[in-house]
Each structure stands twice: as structure tokens, then as C-alpha cells.
Amino acid sequence: MAHNLIARARKDTVPIAVIAADKIEAWSRTLSKARRDWLTGAGFTGNAGASALIPADKGGVEQVIFVIDDTTDMWSWSLLATQLPMGSYKLAGRLSQAIVNDAAQGWGLSAYEFTRYRKARVNCPELVWPTNADRAQCIAMLDATELVRDLINTPAEDLGPSELADEVRKVGRKFKAKVRVTAGDALLKANYPMIHTVGRAADDAPRLVDLRWGTRGPRVTLVGKGVCFDTGGLDLKSAAGMLRMKKDMGGAAHALALGQLIMAAKLPVRLRVLIGAVENSVAGNAYRPWDVLQTRKGITVENANTDAEGRLVMGDCLAEACTEKPDLLLDFATLTGAARVAVGTGIAAVFANDDKLYSDLEKHADVTADPVWRLPLHKPYRALIESNVADVSSASDGPFGGAITAALFLQEFVDDDVPWAHFDIMAWNVGSKPGRPTGGEAMGLRAAYAMIADRFGRK
Fold first, then answer.
1. Residues 221/176, Cβ–Cβ less than 8 Å
2. Is 29 one of the catalytic residues?
3. Which domains are delineated in the chain?
4. Alpha helices, DSSP H only, in 154-303?
5. b/e per residue, 156-166, with b = 16+ CB within 10 A?
6. How far apart are CA 201 and CA 128, in angstroms?
7. Are the beta carbons of 20 and 71 closer than 8 angstroms?
8. Of 212, 237, 270, 382, catalytic
9. Which of 24, 55, 121, 296 has the fewest beta carbons under 10 Å from its own?
């Protein structure tokens, strides 16, 4: 990522005075009356998030004023970056590492642009790296966010199951991880029948991608839904419903990016990333509604709707993940529209079978400006996915509680003694904000990484 963060100040670098909102009155009294009058005339409120340019006596800008409080987060810095004229800036004064890390990440993300198919159009001012910023961690997070966004933004013509597997291999090579790919009919021999069933109608064969890194420490396993395009299958989506379905591999992008963060930080864990990479297509050999599917878990699934395909792919991956009894199991999936109805497009809906796990996630979500909201694994709703002919139905036949019944279906493939959290995410910005352009987006990534680093990082 071409970060707009630079190593050294220039002669014309402008300082940014960062002032707490509760100190603004005392600070303003240190200014001349002319300066105070100028700020008033410029509409400077002194409230958190307010900024102003202080002119130099000989022209140009002498300094920037930026007001912060406890609500200031990385996106506040993205906004500031988009409001300033082109040039070079640096933070002035002593600031906590948390503040400068937020500044660096928010400033860096203000420059993000998807440029695979056209030249860059975004111009952003530069920020000199703050002296006490954790550069390595900030760059790793910027790179991981870019990876998520770029993968989601890439259309399915250029990112099918085979290309998604190649992206995992690329990350694996960088960190000397082992990557194994099981593709096509080999999935049946290896006993991943649901992954094969969902993807068998596509020209690009379905795949199970398995990345391993680390030889000692707790087991951390990440599972990602890698539906590279979702037509809905024989239960075909409408044109409007199909429009954004290149993003249906967003869960896989998150699992891979989170794995990349763990490896970049060299956390002392045994990492495993499992991605079911498929395209849900229509052909003569496509699976059908009410087909009964075999599974890696050994239970049978009655397929309620071919557009509820992601949970089938995830089921085989989760069953495999649990064979090693990981100390932590997280999965990411663009699974249900019902979750978007429940929490909107900007919050990651999270289900967890472990209260302490969710509590830790929520704590780190608040700190990282990466909101999550818990939905219940409500046991009585398990009756909604009963089947008359199989062990379980893939979906309820009613319109209510769809995110919950989908999570309960996934829970069928997770062992009770494995701490597990399921992220049902949008993975897409439906509108542009500073640092968050329309398109693919990382949701829950920062919170999940912070939680893992806190639990399993070097003390």
C-alpha cells in the first residue's frame, strides 16, 4: 500500500498541535487577540474533532490545530487528512502511543484506493511518522486492511477459487507458512463433500485451502467463507441481489488478513487458516433444493435453498477445524442479510459459545473503533432447522431470525468444548466516508487481532 506516511520532516512541514477539548480555553488564552479573532471568524468551535489552520505572518500555514477527546478515533484522523491542503504535516508535542497509532492508521487509510483497473485519482497530504508510533504494527494493519479491501473489490472474473487459493499461497510464501490445496473431485476423496457439492457446477473447481504456520503455542484456527461469486444457484438471485456478490468471499479475505497479522507479529501460536473457495453457479450438475448432503462431520443436511450455500462450505471447514481442538476458533462470513437487518451494514454481528471470548472481543472492539454486536445462539430456534429426512436443515422455512438460525446451523459443526466466535459481516461500505471508500471493507479484523494479541501475545 502506498501509505501517505513519510520518515522525515521537510523544511515546509507544518506542525499539528493536538489539544484536548477540556484544555482548549486555556490554550486560546495563550494566543494574541488577533489570532483569537481569526479563529472565531473562521468558525473554529473548539469542540472535539474541530480543526483550524493558523496562518503564518509571512503567508502560508504556521500550524494546524486539532481538538481531540475520548471519542477521537482513527477515523477522526482520516477526516482531518482529507480536510487539509496538500503538503507535509507532523504531530507536535508529547502524545500517547495509542493516539499516534490511531493517527498513523487513520491517515494511512485516507490514502486507500483500489487501482487495479485504473490510475490513482486520490491525492492526500503526508504525515511524518510520529516518533513513538509502533510503525511495524501500524504498517501491518494497513497492509492487512488493504488486502481485505483489494480482494473483495476484485471481480470474480479475476478472483475465482483458483485465484483465491493463489492469494493464500502468496501470503504463505511471504511468511514461510505451509499451504495445502485440495481441489475438485479430490475433495470427495478427502471427505469435504459439502464444499464439493456447492462448487461443482462452476468451471473453476471448488477448493479447500489450508494454511499452517507456527509449531508451538496455543492453537488459533481461522475459517473464512470463500464464495467467490454467488448466483444463488438454482434458487437464482435477482439482478439486484446478485450485483455485489463478488464480495461473498469477504470472510475468506478476513481470515487470510487476520492470519497475515498474526504471522507478521510473530505471535507464539500455532495458526491454521481454512478457506472453502467455491463459485455458486448454475449448470446441469448443480445441487438442488431438498437434496440431502453428506458432510465431513458425519451428519446429513437437507438443503433448504441453494442460496444458503455459504454455511454448507463453512460447515465442512469448521468440522475439520475442530479435529485439532483449537484453543480459539474464529470464523468470518458474509452469511446473511438478516444480520444486516439486525445491526445494519457498519457493525459486525457476532455469535459466541463462550461469554469470556465475546467479552474480550467487545472490549477490544471499543478500543479499536471496530464495532461488534452480539446476537444470541438461541437454543429454542434450533427447532426451526429441523428436517424430516435428514439430521438438520440448512435453513428455516420462515422469514424470521435468519442470522440466528444460520449461526445455529454452523454450531452443529463446532464441538462444544472449542471456544468459538462467528462473525456475520457485510464486508462492504455502501457509501464513502474519509478513510472508508465505497467497496470492500474490513469488519471485526482489528478487534479480533487485538483480542488474539492480548490473549496469546508475548507477555
1. no
2. no
3. 5-133 (3.40.220.10), 139-456 (3.40.630.10)
4. 161-174, 186-189, 193-199, 239-242, 250-264
5. beebbbebbbe
6. 52
7. no
8. 237
9. 121
Sheet order of strands, 420-424 included: 178-183, 207-213, 270-280, 219-230, 328-333, 420-424, 348-352, 372-374
Task: Give pLDDT tens digits for 321-348.
Answer: 999 999 999 999 999 999 999 999 999 9
How many whole angstroms from its chain centre is CA 243? Answer: 20
The answer for residues whose C-beta is within 8 angstroms of residue 311's C-beta and 6 or more apart is 333, 335, 394, 395, 406, 409, 410
Buried b (16+ CB within 10 A) or exposed e, 279-295: bbbeeeebbeeeeebbb
The pLDDT of residue 136: 95
Task: Give mean pLDDT, residues 373-383.
Answer: 98
Does the pTM surpass 0.85? The reply is yes
**Would you state the cell numbers that stand for residue 201, as one nine-digit string?**
457446477
Task: Annotate 66-128 with DSSP letters as a single string.
Answer: EEE-TT--HHHHHHHHHHSPSSEEEEES---HHHHHHHHHHHHHTT----SSS-------EEE
C-alpha cell belonging to residue 43: 468558525
pLDDT tens digits along 230-267 = 999 999 999 999 999 999 999 999 999 999 999 999 99
Residue of 311, 340, 446, 455 with catalytic role: 311
CB 47 within 8 A of CB 21: yes
Contact 353, 381 (CB under 8 A): no
Contact 259, 204 (CB under 8 A): no
In degrees and rounded to multiples of 5, residue 91 shows phi and psi of: -80, 135
Grid cell locating 294? 453428506
- In whole angstroms, give the CA distance from residue 305 to residue 181: 28
